[in-house]
Amino acid sequence: MGGNLFINSLVYGWGDYSDYFLAGKRQKDDSDVFFTHTHEKDIIEFIIDCSTQKICYKNLRHQRRQVLSIDMDKCPFPWQLYISLGGRADQISLIDSSSTTTA
Known about the structure:
Elements: E1 13-16, E2 19-22, E3 25-26, E4 44-49, E5 54-59, E6 64-69
């Protein structure tokens, strides 16, 4: 996947905490700065709640979370998950939501 995927009008999600996209529009003033909140070895919890049309981002190190509501007129089902890993040792683990106690 090449190019800038974030400018698509269907994109909702995060580049970092407080650096998020709503319908392809970046919601951050200093648009040239990435990863001011996320550091190496941070654990990010990402929840997709299709029943309430929301996604949630939580950095477990500093216990800060953000919830975005998805405009179903702009981004109807089926949703596609896109994750970009920049570091050589970056990892993703998928965990069954019934095994967690956070939300």
